[in-house]
Task: structure prediction
Amino acid sequence: MAIVEEELQTKQNVDQTTTFESGNEMAAMAAAQINYHIMGYFPITPSTEVAQYLDQMKARGEHDIQLIAADGEHGSAGICYGAAATGARVFNATSANGFMYMLEQLPVQSGTRFPMVLNLVTRAISGPLDIRGDHSDLYFALNTGWVILTAKTPQAVYDMNIMALKIAEHSKVRLPVIVAYDGFWTSHQKRKVNYFTDRKVVQEFVGECPRDYHFANDPKNPVTIGAHMDGPNLMNNHYQQSEAMYAAGEVFKEVAAEYAKISGREYPVLDLYGMEDAEVALFLLNSAEESAKDVVDKLRAQGIKAGVISPNILRPFPEKEIRAALKNVKGLLVGERADSYGAHGPNLTHEIKSALQSDRENKTLVLSRVFGLGGTDFYADDAEAFFNVVMDAVEKGYAEKPFDYYGVVPGDLEKTQKPVIEPQHGDVFNSGLIQVTQDEETKKLKVKISPLRALTEKPKRLASGHGACPGCGIFGGLEMFFKGIEGDVVVLYQTGCAYVTTTAYPYTSHKQTMIHNLFQNGAATLSGTVEAFLEMKSRGEIEVSNDATFVMITGDGGMDIGMGSAIGTALRGHKLIMLEYDNEGYMNTGSQMSYSTPFGHMTSTSNVGKAQKGKTFHHKDTAQIMAATNIPYVFTGTEAFPQDLVKKAAKAQWYAQNVGPVYGKILIACPLNWKSDDRYGEVIVGAAVNSCFFPLYEVEKGETTITYDPEAKKKRIPVSDWLKYMGKTKHLLKEENKELLATFEAEVERRWQILKAKHENPLL
Result:
């Protein structure tokens, strides 16, 4: 790494500041200096930090970018497209499945030719879930019609983010641009970087925001954007888009040359190391190239003419430059951090082969290896192994395995892990301590439970040894809920802390069947499970008891991105329970703001500073939204009121087994991100109830009943008495923020009065 980076940082013609920063920090730095109009975003590891850093800068008053928290990546892509169509400068960052979720929106933006810049912090696409870096998401970008730049270092992330906007807005291009860099390697590792001290230098380089296009921002000049086309017109449209993409390759060279004049850093189409007379070479994307350079030096010291090729631009594909670089190379190994399943080699392998096919004189032997999936490290020894493979093929004149995976470890049956505990099912979870009956007159349920100490004999649904933080309220809340559930359960966990901390392959803390799917589709997935279970049982293909209960566990903001799926499941009437643990944020990705985050509360994307004071809008009332779907039972609960929660769980099971879908919301503490004492989780959620911020109630067959009234019990406390327990809300208690506190208190009171009115009037 050091050689090329030092070369790039010479001859700086404009005042620059030297520091040590990560790729995510430098992406945010570039965006802030450009001062984009809009960033529509949704948190996902490892790109989340970009929005966090920008929000911190926003709180300090360092830029004017409007940061819009979306309900999911599909929504964030829509926000960005709408802003771009209005003529605004637009920025975003995402990774992996988040990129996949926005994927259908991307060709819309490129096909209608609206520029923007998207940082793709590359990460493995699940399933199974793996949050570390490979290029499986990047490869889905290849056919979206977006220009793609690749950044190997934090320095390159900064520089290419600046160049990307100028390329995107160029009159010959007018296409959105992706800047792709490796998750955790480049995104999080700090390296020596230079950035322009004065942001005016950056703004003068990118120039004024173009106005000479058909934007939706002038009522005197109305436009229609995205009108449907017939075949011939669509053919013309895509031809023009294709020509613009190829033009972007030449524009990249022009912009890179201009940028080199002010920065002293050069970015050719291909980074070539030792390629002037190379006979064997590796083709590697992004950070892996750096590991191979030391090996090139080592091999050349042994008299072996080795080299490395790495592109700085991937779309348009640098076909001409690759042919020139490989003109005298005898053997090339293309290392790729993704596969194109069934194609006998990943995407770039075939594109390189296609490029060489146009040169009849080229005799380069091309091999392909998939490596480094799921964040597997790539060291110099691995690069040397790649060179050995290609040198062996050159010596033989052919490759024994033109395509293969590198780093696969065969399993050993003798080391197969055995369960630590015997599987528990059926009668083990039937305590007989809970009785649910239906009132013949009201048709509502009555629940009778034994004392809580008797219920402690009931086995836990989750085994010990999970990785939750000290004081985490998730499992206390879930286990209390499960005390009210008799018999077997099939549980689906959406992505979140509860899932991640209990399932780290090859281990699991789940004693009964657990399925995982992503935030946005958990409810739909479990509805398919329920219906398949019932259908196969009706056909006599499976033999199981009739009292199995299906439960979806969501949390960590999952009822934002997963709201549509949950509502659809509710409306279809599947017999299942949707249970949300509410920790008031996206805690599994680093305490970002969710729609359930209360007004004024601090998160990593609703920071507190001189320019802003926490979240700017009120929390979403998910229970009321789900009650509006007219499902048979909706409830709220918390472990601070255990009998209330256990009774509601028993009701939930009865309705899920006999009538239809149930939704429940339990408030749980998150000491790490609430900045509260580990010991006080139950106290804090109890205070939330007694302050009327989180009322305990149920909506049974459309009728609302408050199940615990702190006013009637003479236990109501001021909202401030709840807020004082948490570091994330202490700013609201300061004199200068009394208006914010008053606004929050007024909203809590308004919702409480509405709930009381519903309690007193069954028709509301």
Q: What stands out?
A: The CA atoms of residues 437 and 446 lie 5 Å apart. DSSP finds 26 helices and 25 strands in the chain. Confidence is low (pLDDT under 50) at residues 1-6.
